């Protein structure tokens, strides 16, 4: 997600992720704990490739929710579902066989959150501001949804992050930590 809360740019673009780095082991961790992926039709149509999930590190059942499965291109490993979101989760959980179902869709995530069917929102924030695109949680007029922070002692804690604007040619800053 971008720092300002977008998970995709305008028209589902993802090129803003180029040049960002995940912590070592993160992709392997998610590839190992994910048993099935549930996504929406817009995300699928923007990138109809089941082999690109976690950069190709994950293979498994992918479910795509749509109101019109009849015009979707049949693709091995992909099941197009047209059902209630709760039913889609039930189907995906069964396929996940004890592992996690990752919801790769803010639109579906929002519906599942309303139904109490999201266990965790797991975010990796990229150092970029987009200003436009697909929001993590687009719910105009909705009430705030309170969350609990799972890392650290205080579940109500605000997370502090500091970012200067990137400047071409700026040397990487050094950081100090106890013992340095
Ligand atoms: N940054 C990241 O790590 C990350 C992760 C995941 C996803 N993304 C991005 O997030 C974007 C997804 O955008 P989005 O959430 O706006 O769209 P989306 O969920 O991918 O697609 C929305 C479509 O899904 C179908 N749908 C949703 N709820 C449904 C329901 N209850 N029943 C039947 N069909 C339903 C509908 O398809 P029909 O119109 O066919 O009925 C709807 O138009 C993509 O660009 C993707 O790349 C980014």
Automatic annotation (TrEMBL):
Pfam family, one: RibD_C
Molecular-function GO terms, alphabetical: 5-amino-6-(5-phosphoribosylamino)uracil reductase activity
Ranges for domain Bacterial bifunctional deaminase-reductase C-terminal: 1-149
GO BP terms, alphabetized: riboflavin biosynthetic process
Domain of life: Bacteria
Protein name: Deaminase
Organism listed in the record: Streptomyces hawaiiensis
């Amino acid at each position: 997600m971008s720092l300002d809360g977008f998970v995709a740019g305008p028209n589902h673009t993802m090129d803003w992720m180029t040049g960002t780095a995940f912590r070592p082991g993160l992709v392997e961790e998610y590839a190992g704990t994910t048993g099935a992926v549930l996504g929406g039709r817009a995300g699928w149509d923007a990138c109809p490739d089941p082999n690109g999930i976690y950069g190709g590190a994950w293979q498994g059942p992918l479910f795509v929710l749509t109101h019109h499965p009849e015009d979707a291109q049949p693709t091995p490993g992909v099941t197009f579902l047209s059902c209630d979101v709760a039913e889609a989760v039930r189907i995906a959980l069964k396929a996940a066989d004890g592992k996690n179902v990752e919801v790769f869709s803010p639109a579906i995530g929002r519906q599942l959150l309303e139904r109490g069917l999201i266990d965790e929102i797991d975010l990796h924030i990229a150092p970029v501001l987009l200003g436009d695109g697909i929001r993590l949680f687009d719910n105009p007029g909705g009430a705030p949804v309170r969350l609990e922070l799972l890392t650290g002692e205080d579940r109500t804690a605000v997370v502090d992050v500091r970012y200067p604007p990137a400047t071409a040619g700026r040397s990487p800053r050094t950081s100090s930590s106890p013992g340095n």
